[in-house]
Amino acid sequence: MLVALALIVLTLVVWEARRELSLDHRLSGVASEVAGRQVSVDCPGFLRGLLDIRGNGGSVMFDANGKPSSTTHLETSVCHDLSSYGATRKRADFSCVFSTAFCSEKVERAVYAALVLSHESQHLRGIQSESAAQCYAVQTLALVARRLGSPPAEAGAVAAHFLAVSQPRMSTDYSLSADCVDGGSLDLSPQSTGWPTA
Ligand SMILES: [Zn+2]
User: Fold this and answer.
1) pTM for this predicted structure
2) Which terminus of the chain faces fewer neighbouring Cβ atoms within 10 Å, N or C?
């Protein structure tokens, strides 16, 4: 009886660990593409997740010379929302991202989680300023959304939706500067028209 119980617990622990590893691996690929170098994404996992009470969505450490670490640590809730992004985008109410109305909490959380991954990837690319990282993150949000499973048109809508609906609600540390406009000095593709994507 005790052996059976131990086996069940062990199976659950191994299954959970494998699931987390595959999520970390998938998200690391997305972050590396945005950062332009090999980086990794670390999700807390079940046990650490129980103790996880931070509130920034994610973090990247910078050394005294302004060089970023190669790993971002994401919060439990963000990892959970990224993990379920593919399922969330299949819900009928996800089409709300094509509008500038506030969507259901589930949909807004999926959009926000994608933004956090995009933002931390910008830190990993070497951008230390919160405002600049946020500006670039909004511009690479469509790419992140595509990698999480959105078709191109939907991915572009996700970025435009975040910019219109959620960006104005961000705290002032993450406010976009006057240069964060189409053709501005923070535009990642100054030659092309279209904002925030390309
Ligand atoms: Zn940041």
Assistant:
1) 0.91
2) N
